[in-house]
Amino acid sequence: VREISGRDKQTWLSHSWGGVLMTSAYTFDPLLLGMIDCCVHFGTKRDIKSHNFFSWLYFKDITFGWHFFFPLLAKLNGGGFPAKEYGVGGDGETSLSLKASKNWVMGNPWMDLEDGFNYRSAHDSLVTDGLTPPAMHIFSTNDLLLGNPIDVRRWAEQTHQTQNLLEIDTFDHVSMMTSKDADDAHFSQALKFIRKHIRTPHK
User: Fold this and answer.
1) What is the pTM assigned to this prediction?
2) Taking a C-beta distance cutoff of 8 angstroms, is the pair 198, 11 a contact?
3) Distance in angstroms (rounded) separating the CA atoms of residues 158 and 152
4) What is the separation of C-alpha 39 from the centre of its chain, rounded to a whole number of angstroms?
5) SS3 category, 156
6) What are phi and psi of 12, to 5 degrees?
7) Tens of pLDDT along 34-58?
């Protein structure tokens, strides 16, 4: 990335669960912070509390899908779930990643299931030391479940990233990234944020 961009620093962009993985990555390995200018997260949440466990939307997509059916398919596929092949996502998942995401989405502590690493405590320490990168959260009122504004705001509060929140409308969890109208609606705002925080210019 450095060779192609001509920059020593990178701007990290994420969608949905990717923002949790990015934040967890630099929290676990703070050496990564040296290469980050800023982060922009679209529809990112760590847990879902905007819907109760008995709502149809939550049951269909989360309880049945991610917590039961997808892990079952992963087991039948030898430990890997090819989400793209089944038309329910763009990336594959392993049984372990499904297990870990289920644990966090349910609202359990931000800790590693395997080694017990406490991400919440480690991230709070990074914030106290002023080491975390500036972050912007973009989310839509029409994103009812996977990036519900209630859940996104809570994640932003947990990670002390409430300074740059942009709430949009009309877009759902996917169209906020793919719609031709996204440029004028919020991509332009994200670009302003990025340009404000990049430390070395693009070539």
Assistant:
1) 0.86
2) yes
3) 10
4) 11
5) helix
6) -95, 125
7) 999 999 999 999 998 887 655 767 7
